[in-house]
Amino acid sequence: MSETRYDFAIVGAGMAGASLAAELSPHASVLMIEAEDQPGYHATGRSAAFWDECYGGPDVVPLTLASGAFLREHDLLTQRGALHIARAQDSAKVDRFLAEFSGTGATIERLDRGEMIKKLPGLREEWIEAVWEPACCDIDVGALHALYLARAKAGGAKLAVRARITQAGHKGDCWQLRSADGREFLASTLINAAGAWADELADIAGCGKLGITPYRRTVAQLRTNPAPSQTQPLVLDISGHFYFKPESGRLWLSPHDEEPSPACDAAPEELAVAAAIDRLQQVVRLDVERVETKWAGLRSFAPDRLPVYGTDARDTDFFWFAGQGGFGIQTAPAAAQLAASILLNQPMPAPLAGIDPKKYSPRRFG
After folding, report:
1. Domains of the chain, CATH where assigned
2. Torsion sign over Cα 197, 200, 201, 207
């Protein structure tokens, strides 16, 4: 049994856990507890992440915008642009999109077909208008995760791998955690950054579930003729049925699927890949020569689709840092700073000015 007692034990060392450890470790003793052989095996390591100002909805926009400066400062963004395309029958959805994000700080504009074709040659005739997001960028997910792990280590944070927590309870004034292989850990505060396993961990700890549900998202890498231009934008269906983007001469394509799933090592479904290819060929004129690889990851959402940051209503020594869906990568800097400010009882840093942490509190669920 470990006799070391940490101020914070963070369960999960993906992007969520690593970013929060990096923020906390200069000020407190931190242990990251990772179930897998290495951090970032699940959602973080399978993300086709992009920094998209509108992704996640209007209430996520402040977190995305507040994260932009950090990502740019560390040269983690590559300019891409995002094109939300629509057919004639989708015009009302374009109106709603523009109205929904008006005044949020996101930069968006409506484009006609002539302007769309300049950005996406080969576009089929039925796609006639779009919402354009010029600020959208690719994120170097691996470099961001590595940066946070390095900062956490430099701050003194420790990492335990292959340590899936199976028991958690109070021992006096601290948490006593036990992993499946019998290791034990002590900490004053238990932080739930377990991603798809967030509700499972809360249940083990006696705090109860919030209804955070994992959903499978499938992505395939295609070789196409013609090959996509590296300057081609991220293209999304305004109705949410697909998205695709170029990547090193290939095309990354998703059917934008959201299939509820148990927390697991997610695998791609052949039908999802086939559906994605069929939808792609209804958008642009190209030949799919080969599916080179495919993968799936789990994106976890709370019932209201907003992230969950804050102390549990039943146990103030249990802290939620979960439910970050597909926007967890692009909001990681702001989310970690917000959570660290709460945990350390410090003022919110300047980039987070105007953000109300109560909006993301687990206590909103009653």
Report:
1. 5-45+141-210+304-365 (3.50.50.60), 82-134+213-301 (3.30.9.10)
2. positive
